[in-house]
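Quick entry between incubations.
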Amino acid sequence: MTIMEPRKHGDASDGTVGGRQTRFEGNLKVTGGATYALEYPVEGLAYAILVQSTVAAGRVVKVDTGKALAAPGVLMVLTPDDDMGLLVASDWGGNRPENQPYYPLPKQVQYNGQSVVAVVAESREQAIEAAKLICITYERTAHVASFDDPAAGEGKVMDNLTSGWGDAEAALAAAPVRIEGEYRTPREYHVAMEPHGLTVKWDGDQITVWEPSQWSHGMARSYSEWFGIPYENVRLISPFIGGGFGSKGAALAHGAVAAFAARKLGRPVKLALTRPQNFINYGGRAATRQKIALGATEDGILQAIVHRGASETSTYADWPEQTGAATPILYKVENFSSQHRVVPVNTVTPGALRGPGKNPSAFGIENAIEELAYKLGMDPLELRLKNYADRDYQSGKPWSTRRLREALTEGAEAFGWSKRSHEPRSMRDGRQLIGWGIGCGTFPVIQAPSEAMIRILGNGRVEVVSGAIDMGQGTYTILAQTAAEVFGIPVDQVEVHLGDSRLPGSAIAGGSMLAGSILGAVHKAATAARDELIGLALSDEKSPLRDTGANTLTFGGGRIAVPRDQGPSLTLPELMAALGRDEIEVRRNTLPDGATPQEHHQAWTTMAKVQGPTMGEYSMHSWCAHFAEVRVDEDFGTVRVSRIVSAFDCGRLYNPRLVESQWRGGIIMGIGQALLEEGLVDLRNGRTVNNNMGDYLVPTNADVPDIQVISVGVPDYGASALGGKGVGEVGIVGVAPAIANAVFHATGKRVRDLPITLEKLI
Amino acid sequence: MRDFSYLRASSADEARQAATQAGIMLLAGGTTLLDLAKCGVMEPETVVDITHLSGLGGIEVDENGARIGALAKMGQVADHAGIRAAFPAVSESLSLAASAQLRNMATIGGNLLQRTRCSYFREPDVFPACHKRNPGSGCSALGGVTRNHAVLGTSDTCIASYPGDLAIALVAFDAKVELGGRTVPVDDFFLLPGNTPERETVLERGEMITAITVPASAAAKNSTYLKVRDRQSYEFAAASAAVGLEFEADGRTVRDIRVALGGVATKPWRARGVEQALIGKVLNAETIETASRLAMEGAVSHGANHYKIELAPRVVARAILKVGGLA
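Done. Structure below.
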């Protein structure tokens, strides 16, 4: 792979913010020293497994558990008839119905694969064998397996996702050049290496949950509310997680079942979802479809965009995969109309998967814009630049920063776009048709309050303490870099403690909001701790720096000194020793001053205080442009991505090495989405049949080409305290349309439904 | 997974003896058995480990052909210099199969016996109907998601495709399977599903594959295995072809040609119709294309697998072009 040096952001030396420090916890992970949730050595474990419905809709009328209860090692069988006495927990917004019972093993079956029974035994194998002896009788009712089933209907319009300005229909009708297409994405899954599951233990009415989590505080709240125990009684521990991609942000039914079993049995319980359950038992990305019509002048000025989208949701909750999320903000257009529907079908409620909304939305608009370019006979790059959005036409606000033009032009230069030949099927190498395509992407800047604690220890080490999560994106590393910079010490003098709901509250590791949010809190706490230390050093009679006449001190090179070398200098441990202090502890958050304890709790455990991209005076987003080259075998229809150049505007990069990894990871997932990934549902019973890694394909190393990533961003201090914008989600957004556009350029065939498998091209 | 007993056989005879009893299965690399035991498809009461038996892992190649011990690992055979020289299609079929980790575990004998990747076969609790698993229970695949199912050799009871690669190359070059007491051509070793899809090979209870022999031939020496799939690596074939070719002295007329197909049929599929159409003919793009279409004689689609009928002849044609020096 090619690594292109990104622009320098701040100090580029390794240990401070903006440096290319390697992963702080990397050694632990690659040497097996990092303990994951299902590996905690807890004494006396019992093992729980889940039995899932084999019908898509209906009701459990009888569960015969007799043989299973008599099977070796079986401790307990839980069925829909067991009232666990749980209460429904708050939703992400913090809204909670009063005293509504919660049934994690419901009688009503709403999708094939819903958990209906749990078996707990002395060993996992015994539980699995006993489960085979359970006879479940269902009363089946008619099901709807897909939003393509006529019985699914048109679905419900989401009013909050309807937007428009100008008169799009009239402008479209009047436009001399028009294109229209329907773009579709299938059900897609997270496929994290680490499965969902937990180890759970009660001590009286205190519960400890070891569970992979993108949000320790939010998930702890669910456990406390389900079981009616004080929040303080829950401890959710998740220092390392083996991939989340949006799936590990909320506590799920299997957690409630395991925790209930542990309480009832009076012994700790471990529950790990099987790989098929990891496909079926919680929501992946919803299937989407969207019709887009574009109208333009003959010289390629966009006149109108009309967008009508829909996504599947479950029969019991509305989860919109917003097909209109990127549509209004990528291009300048005076007439716009967008509407999104959700169509209930018998599936588990879909959920967030990297780049939610923006991802399928970009697949639509970025295909459509190239369809228009070919209809106009215009270079797709030129068409994009010609319709460059100078402001956010949806909110009417100026961009905080938007360097998408630089992403397009610098990406094009690095890719060699000027050497492109316009006609489809005009580039080949033997039987390989070669094509080039572009896909732009965007993801909003989302901000949330966070809290952090800094401890300066007597031995000179500095601890950063936060409940924030590192799911591989680099939280440990950039928090250490931030503290190292503030104290002017090497990064290995910093310790970082994360992933525990007992630690200070934090934004979720999701929505690309964590780094921008938590760094602000860490920086604030570290600066306050440094100020406290300066105050002590200048005032304490034991301090050798007291009588230097200085009114501040400098921190650098591991030493604390009087400015301009006009006095002694000490290391951190020397100063702490001189002051006779074992510890200086400072806790700071980014809530408004005077926030109440209730507001604190709400801020860390719900999304109520989260700020969207246009809640201030600017419209704030990350941006990217992907340039893809594909080689398509003209006889076999197989598509191989041979080259990708992607240019990003994510503001200031706190650690370019880790950011580049995240971008590449997103691009690789985008390759999978474009070419391989699709949940295949048997319409007869609503079952996702390719529910394993042998049949649901994600890219192998052999599918990943040379990926060159370029940063074109500049610090955006409107977007976050330290100038960064989100990096985790945006990498995948726009990759699939870039590849689809390249496939069109190679073959002359426009594939509007993902994935682009070989049968669509032969 | 059901609890099972584990025994180590001290000799091949002891292993065979043990395997005469129901519920006992031989364990070699375990890459299929363990997988299917986790799915609840295979539930052995006892496994008899044969991996340590001596004399079953050798690879010998001479001018008459190759003899590959049943316990040789896929990776060892793929990388064997003699195999690569005399039977490139055999080596390539193994290199393109599975993943490096699996190739280092799985044995050649076990590779032949791998089971289908039919989703309906693999989920017994959700899809109880499967003639292959439970004779007489029905076929859930018919009318279901059939993108990867067979178009050749299917019956009313089963449309599951044979998933392997190696056997495709073996059937092209008239390899034989040694079963201790008897030797069976690979083509006869595998059975069509017919009305008994549960019976996939002629292997009887108490029999064990001990070796595979492949006769040397000019066609085998000039051979290739072409595997086409959406993912570049670690995926079963959408369609594959093992092809070997020998020209007459003129360098253009076909003296001997072997064609076998993978990913499209219920068993390793020798395409004799394609071979017959080309023997004695001058090889060119047109004769190849016309002949390759014969590979799909009798093909039946079940909806989503229809593309294989279009794809497979193109794969055959490309492979012939390659070994004919025309690609």
